[in-house]
Specification:
Blueprint: H1 3-15, E1 16-17, E2 21-22, E3 32-33, H2 34-44, H3 49-60, E4 72-73, H4 85-88, H5 111-121, H6 125-149, E5 159-160, H7 163-166, H8 175-178, H9 192-195, H10 204-219, H11 224-230, E6 235-236, H12 238-258, H13 262-283, E7 284-285, E8 290-291, E9 293-295, E10 300-302, H14 320-334, H15 364-376, H16 380-397, E11 402-403, E12 415-416, H17 422-432
Antiparallel strand pairs: 1-2, 3-4, 5-6, 6-9, 7-8, 9-10, 11-12
Helix pairs in contact: 1-17, 2-3, 2-5, 2-17, 3-6, 5-6, 5-12, 6-12, 12-13, 15-16
Bound molecules: (2R)-2,3-dihydroxypropanoic acid (DGY).
Length: 433
């Protein structure tokens, strides 16, 4: 094993908790997060498959009666995180988990393709197949939840009702939504800024908006239909929908492998076709040359480029012609000799901030999606660049949460947010294996 892989394993092992889950980072994120857990399992899978499957089964165990899987599962009591379980009150929903308290919002549906990749990397195929057979229906039910409850216009495009559901928490994309809202100035004590420099985190006023949407959802007991009618934030996100399409595809191949549920395979195929078609019609911006977000509440496209704009490559959504166009935009606008790939927000937009969370920094999980996405379309050189930029930053600065996309000579650190960050470590293992 190389030293980097061993260091990554040490980071992951240091973040494993009693109770079968792994925290994203000490201090800052003390619980289990949905999409973090998926990427974390991919790291474990290379050296400890039992742990990978445990991470997945613990998360799936938090599933609600309606198929919903929450974005945070509050396994432990701690007052070092805000907003915690007492703020979210997910138990207001009649079908919420009786076993765990959680948030009442979700995160991108990565679990399908994580299961498929765990199977592919496993040396004991029978063990993983048995696990898949026992758990795959839960992932299917989660997809059914999205199509039955989050597809307002029945066109296959799933909406999110909170910026935290996107995973790209404080992206400048949401600024146009915040302009339509005027929430109260809540009184609360931030905890994140006691762990990480405030200049690298969202502002107090942004948090007012985040909390306000949760108050709205609580007031209707997290009822999906009421949320769709009332939430000031209702957005169709290209990353979220791309993860769903890719996970649909993975579930189909896994059902084929275990040889059952033809009806579910057909349903997944129909969902995927519908979502793919709608993404290509509604979310592709010809002028920008990539996929964008759509503000469903205010019924207008949000014409700006983010790293999410390129993630449909991972799901095979664009035609090869469009994929080429996207690669050009990625190279010319996000790349170049002065930058590492891939900034989370358009470096040529005035709102770009290279140090602030999702307003510019590079995130390794999105790079991992882009690496595989570009490979899928045979763009070997560009995909190799995304991979080597990622590994270079990690080798240089450590397993941080996010990285500065600018190549700045003489800087001591270009890395920000939480240190010893689990998915950065997990995906390093995967990229090197
Ligand atoms: C945070 O606390 O910033 C989390 O990312 C929310 O999911």
């Amino acid at each position: 094993k190389t030293q980097l892989i061993q260091d990554a394993i040490d980071v992951l092992e240091g973040n494993v908790q009693k109770g079968g889950f792994t925290i994203p980072s000490k201090g800052l994120y003390p619980f289990q997060w949905k999409w973090d857990s998926g990427f974390i399992a991919l790291g474990f899978g290379h050296y400890d498959m039992d742990k990978a499957l445990r991470e997945m089964s613990t998360l799936l165990d938090s599933q609600w009666g309606n198929g919903f899987i929450p974005h945070i599962v509050f396994h432990t009591k701690t007052d070092t995180y805000f907003p915690g379980e007492d703020f979210h009150q997910s138990e207001l929903h009649p079908q919420s988990s009786k076993k765990y308290r959680s948030t009442g919002m979700t995160q991108p549906p990565v679990l399908g393709f994580v299961l498929e990749r765990l199977y592919q990397m496993s040396k004991e195929k029978a063990q993983v197949l048995e696990f898949i057979d026992a758990h795959i229906d839960k992932v299917y039910d989660n997809h059914a939840y999205f199509y039955n409850n989050r597809d307002r216009d029945r066109d296959g495009l799933i909406y999110i009702y909170h910026n935290w559901e996107s995973g790209t928490d404080n992206s400048p994309i949401w600024d146009v939504v915040w302009e339509t809202m005027d929430p109260p100035h809540y009184e609360f004590e931030r905890k994140d800024t006691t762990h990480v420099d405030a200049s690298q985190r969202p502002t107090k006023r942004e948090y007012d908006h985040y909390l306000h949407i949760i108050e709205m959802a609580k007031a209707v007991n997290y009822n999906d239909q009421a949320i769709a009618e009332q939430s000031p934030f209702l957005v169709q996100d290209p990353l979220f929908n791309a993860m769903l399409v890719r996970s649909n595809e993975a579930l189909i191949s896994l059902y084929e492998l275990i040889g059952r549920s033809l009806d579910k395979q057909e349903q997944l195929e129909q969902w995927s076709q519908k979502t793919t078609k709608a993404m290509n019609i509604k979310l592709f911006d010809e002028a920008l040359g990539a996929y964008i977000h759509y503000d469903l509440r205010n019924d207008k496209p949000i014409a700006a480029l983010t790293s999410s704009s390129f993630t449909p490559l991972f799901a095979g959504v664009p035609s090869s012609e469009r994929a080429l166009q996207m690669a050009q935009v990625l190279t010319q606008r996000f790349g170049g000799k002065d930058r590492y790939l891939c900034a989370s927000f358009d470096p040529e937009d005035e709102r770009f901030n290279p140090k602030k969370y999702w307003r510019g920094p590079i995130w390794i999980n999105v790079n991992w999606l882009l690496y595989h996405g570009l490979k899928r379309y045979g763009m070997e050189a560009l995909s190799a660049q995304v991979r080597s930029d990622s590994l270079h930053l990690i080798e240089q600065f450590g397993f941080y949460e996010y990285f500065d996309p600018r190549k700045i000579n003489g800087e001591k650190t270009n890395a920000y947010g939480g240190g010893n960050f689990s998915w950065t470590a997990a995906l390093t293992i995967d990229l090197l294996s």
